[in-house]
Amino acid sequence: MATTSVPKRSPLQQDISVDVCIVGAGISGLSTACFLSREGLRVAVLESRQVGSGQTQRTTAHLASALDDFYSEYEEIQGVEKMRLLANSHHSAISKIGKIVQELEVDCQFRRLPGYLFLAPEHSKDLLEKEYAAACRAGIAGLTLLKSPPVKGFDIGPSLYYPDQGQFNPLPYLLGLSEEIERMGGAIYEQTHVQEIRGGEPAEVETAAGPVIKAKHVVVATNTPVNDRFAMHTKMAPYLTYAISLKVPRNAVTTALYWDTLENYHYVRTQPIDETHDLLIVGGEDHKSGQVSDQAERFGRLEQWTRERFAEAGDVVHQWSGMVMETPDGAAYIGPNPGDDPNIYIATGDSGMGMTHGTIAGLLLADFLQGRENPWAEVYDPARTPLAGSAWQDLALETANVISKYAEDWLSPGDAIEVDQLENDQGTVERSGLSKVAYYRDENGETHRNSAVCPHLGCVVHWNDAEKVWDCPCHGSRFDACGEVINGPAVSGLKSLEKNGDANEIPTEDTSDTAAVHDHDGRAI
User: Fold this and answer.
1) CB contact at 8 A, 242 and 298
2) Using CB atoms within 10 A of its CB, is residue 175 exposed (0-12), middle (13-18) or buried (19+)?
3) If we measure between CA atoms, which residue out of 421, 432, 515, 503 comes closest to residue 477?
4) Which residues face 322 on adjacent strands?
């Protein structure tokens, strides 16, 4: 988790015209902006907060060509040829990051290192052997099946060795990209909330403060696509994943990337922090956004899992969560936005590999906007549908899950905690007539009252006590304790009921394909 101080940039204050307007200043948006600026295009990046303030700052920054949804599963869905292109794209992304780090002399602790996929206790070696065979067909060189790798720190057991993986600190890297964009004549505007995107020639991007950008092309580089209502949200699902960092003695754990074979897998790496200690960074405990009430306990389970395997793990230094947008086949959606004007592009669906997917987005979109062919285009086509394997079933189950949560939450009486039982800095949802109300009691004991209905598509939000936010269980929108939107696809906050508002009035947003946009970047754990 990055902690580097970020310099502040001014908001957009007047109408401008550019070649490309990019919404979102995370790794997808800034990679795209950097590569296009280097080709001489006039680029403007709009960010509602600060550079790297979205999901990119919440990544554990694994740079992997090992596919977290397994090559064996992807091959069943999309076939061997696309699998080879997918593997090549992730390998190329790691190399591109390394090249950028060297060219710009970015001090972001980038390094190449091995990766190990190790067996969860309930799995057999057959799983590793199947993935080894598929990854070899994908063209990944140097793979080795090992009975017990020579690593310090914990007994890893049978594993699949991947060479030439990587890790880095993402925020200094983003700052390096930002400076390069500005050196090449591009502009980055912070505290600039995008209100609406309209395709056409030129496309127009309207900001909440009033200024409008006219552009030949628009790239919506957000964690979840917020420039339409339905097209992409039925093709991916939001999951929260948790991470902790603990102090360990320097070099007590062999420097490498580690992943186990669970579906909601654990992932581990180290990062030096001083001459005597490393941080052991551990993630896992994933769940569908807004659909559990034990968020704090998940941090505890993650710590327990870590201490059972790493004897020298010390105190927990940080804990945080991030949102992962899962696609049916494990590949991101990068390219023209389906059903939109041809000059509107999206980058979303990180599927647990946000740092490489974000870099792939920059490489692929630069080719799109410059009229060049790219062999990866079909792999990442946002209009694609899964062809075979379990993907159709997974997609159907996710759709059914959204429908069931919508019905369940509207029919239920509310949360177990009643309003008069709320402690300070705690929230709950109660029924009010035909609707639901979100109550939050702040640290001073004052109670705030908002509609509990997500303005995106009307699902009922749930209180997340670990992070003190409201999570939408349908499409991943997130709101702060007082109802302000902090993550799309919702573009506005929960409706305030402080001044005798009608809780039974369901708030709605523009339902057109080019609805208002909240520029909140994506990615990557």
Assistant:
1) yes
2) buried
3) 515
4) 241
